[in-house]
Amino acid sequence: MRYSLKQLAVFDAVADSGSVSQAADQLALTQSAASMSLAQLEKMLGRPLFERQGKQMSLTHWGSWLRPRAKRLLQDAQQIDLGFYDKHLLSGQVRLCASQTPAEHLVPKLISNIDNDFPEIRVALDVMSTKSVIEGVIDYQYDLGIIEGRCDDNRLNHEIWWRDHLTIVASAHHPFAKREVVTLSQLEQAKWVLREQGSGTRTVFDSHMHPLIEELDVWREYEYVPVLRSLVENGPYLTCLPYLDVEPFIEAGRLVELNVPDLKMDRTLSFIWRADMTENPLLDCIRREAQRMMKGKPRVM
Fold first, then answer.
1. CB-CB contact of 271 with 290 (8 Å)
2. What's the CATH code of the domain at 232?
3. Any idea where the HTH lysR-type domain is (predicted)?
4. What is the DSSP letter of 226?
5. Which domain holds residue 185?
């Protein structure tokens, strides 16, 4: 075997960051040492792995072919370092990315449980739209993702964690708030503020609404749920959000859940990870703890 794990680690870090200097910082190497390792790897393999564009590096065809295979070797090496599956031996970092709803309502409790039971595991968390979570896991930026709804990309494994539903809400002074039933024709005439395109919530909403109503009067689209809640609470709008996001506001009387018999929007919150990833005890541990957490609390339906 002509190449080393160090050389593969440098290759992987450069592929992640697009920069030799950033890869060197990540691996605690000098930039010259990282550059030398990468040059030696390319020379031994006889193929260029990156295209150089100034200081930025992008993968060649050969680099893209090597990347998942290098990932698997590095993950296997990490498992050897971790040892057996005893929880006291589990250590290392997991790069987790979650969409907004699970990040706000479920992930903090999950991380707290991990910190208590597996103190040597470090969970690095980013929060993005479902579309960006999927892209980040596919592109190796994250080890594990949590998304709203399904993902059918065959490059990813998919495991349901939590069940939720979307609900349409209005302010307590909205004309629809006093109605026992709200019809589709009334929804068509309303003013809407919604999550942005690409969010899991918007994808589920559109997939259920468009077959029933061709076009809605959408006034604003925002990324942040608190902005939408505040607009609806203080204005003449309707919105559609996960029940997890509006439950306390409904209970406090600040928002009203509308009864629309013709519309049922169940959805799931799910883990995703790359299908070409070898067994990883850290990811297994997090998913196992998440399922245990779900059993300890009623699902939101």
1. yes
2. 3.40.190.290
3. 1-60
4. H
5. 163-266
